[in-house]
C-alpha cells in the first residue's frame, strides 16, 4: 500500500499547501490566530486527505485493515505505556541539558524557553489545539512518517535506512529534536514488528496527551516529578543531579527498548513485507 505512494509528492504538496494558505490568509487580512488555525488545517487535514484519497481512489481494493487493526494490540498496551513514560522522562532530561548548555552563553534564550506557553485564541483555540495535538497529529503523522516515509525510504535504502531517515525528518518537525528522533525510531519499530499503525498511533496519542496535560495543569500538582522538572533558571543548577540521574536511566531504558523491538527484525526483513508482522513467538 504505502510502497506506491510517492513521498516527494507528499512533501511538495504539504509545502505548497502551507505556503498557499499563508498567502491567502495574509491577503485577506486574517489575524494571526485564524491564520495559524488555517495552516494547521491545511497541514493536518486538507493536504493529507487529498494525498491519501488520490491513492485510495486508484486502488479500491485497498483496506485500512491492512495497516490499522485492533487485533492483537492488547498485549502491547502495558509496554506502550512504559515506553511513553521513558520517552517523556528522556525528553524532560534533554530539555534540562539544552538549558544547561544555553544558559551560560545565552541566558535570554534559556529564559525564553522557560517562559510559560500562552494560548492567544481563547477557549475555541485551546480546544482546537488539544484536538490537533492529541488526535489529528498522531494519526496523520504516523500515516505520513511511519507509513509513507518509512516504507519509501526503506525501499530505496534499507530497513534501518528507512527508520533513520523517517525519524530524522520527524525530529526536524519537532522542537525536541533528539527526543522526537528516538521517539520516531521506537514508533517505526512498533510498526515494523506488528504491521499495525494503530500501535504507534496509540503510542503517539498517549505521549501527546500527557504533554498537553502538563500545559494546562500546574507542575507543582505533580509532586512526584517536581523534584527534577525545570521551570525556572534557578532549577537548572539546583536540579542538575536529579536530571543527570533521569537522563542516565532513561537513556539506558530507551536503548533497551530499541534493542528489544529490533531484535530479530533485521534478519526477517529480507523475507517479509515491510509492514508484515513477525510471528508472535518473535514478538515476545
UniProtKB/TrEMBL annotation:
Signal peptide range: none
Transmembrane segments: 9-31, 37-56, 76-105, 125-145, 240-259
CAAX prenyl protease 2/Lysostaphin resistance protein A-like domain sequence ranges: 128-210
Pfam families membership: Rce1-like
UniProt GO MF annotations: endopeptidase activity
Keyword flag Cytoplasm: no
This protein's UniProt keywords: Membrane, Transmembrane, Transmembrane helix
Protein name: CAAX prenyl protease 2/Lysostaphin resistance protein A-like domain-containing protein
Organism expressing this protein natively: Planococcus citreus
Amino acid at each position: 500500500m504505502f510502497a506506491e505512494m510517492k513521498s516527494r509528492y507528499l512533501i511538495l504538496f504539504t509545502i505548497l499547501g502551507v505556503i498557499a494558505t499563508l498567502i491567502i490568509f495574509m491577503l485577506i487580512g486574517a489575524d494571526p490566530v485564524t491564520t495559524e488555525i488555517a495552516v494547521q488545517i491545511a497541514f493536518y487535514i486538507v493536504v493529507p486527505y487529498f494525498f491519501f484519497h488520490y491513492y485510495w481512489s486508484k486502488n479500491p481494493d485497498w483496506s485500512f485493515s491492512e495497516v490499522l487493526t485492533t487485533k492483537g494490540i492488547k498485549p502491547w498496551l502495558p509496554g506502550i505505556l512504559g515506553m511513553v513514560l521513558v520517552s517523556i522522562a528522556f525528553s524532560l532530561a534533554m530539555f534540562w541539558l539544552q538549558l544547561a548548555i544555553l544558559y551560560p552563553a545565552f541566558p535570554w534564550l534559556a529564559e525564553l524557553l522557560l517562559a510559560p506557553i500562552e494560548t492567544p485564541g481563547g477557549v475555541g483555540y485551546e480546544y482546537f489545539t488539544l484536538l490537533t495535538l492529541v488526535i489529528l497529529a498522531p494519526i496523520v503523522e504516523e500515516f505520513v512518517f511511519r507509513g509513507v516515509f518509512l516504507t519509501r525510504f526503506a525501499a530505496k535504502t534499507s530497513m534501518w535506512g528507512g527508520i533513520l531517515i523517517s525519524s530524522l525528518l520527524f525530529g526536524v518537525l519537532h522542537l525536541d529534536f533528539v527526543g522526537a528522533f528516538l521517539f520516531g525510531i521506537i514508533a517505526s519499530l512498533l510498526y515494523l514488528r506488528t504491521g499495525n499503525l494503530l500501535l504507534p498511533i496509540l503510542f503517539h496519542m498517549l505521549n501527546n496527551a500527557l504533554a498537553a496535560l502538563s500545559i494546562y495543569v500546574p507542575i507543582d500538582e505533580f509532586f512526584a516529578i517536581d523534584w527534577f522538572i525545570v521551570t525556572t533558571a534557578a532549577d537548572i543548577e539546583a536540579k542538575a543531579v536529579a536530571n543527570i540521574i533521569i537522563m542516565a536511566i532513561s537513556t539506558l531504558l530507551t536503548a533497551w527498548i530499541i534493542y528489544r523491538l529490533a531484535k530479530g527484525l533485521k534478519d526477517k526483513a529480507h523475507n517479509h513485507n515491510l509492514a508484515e508482522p513477525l510471528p508472535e513467538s518473535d514478538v515476545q
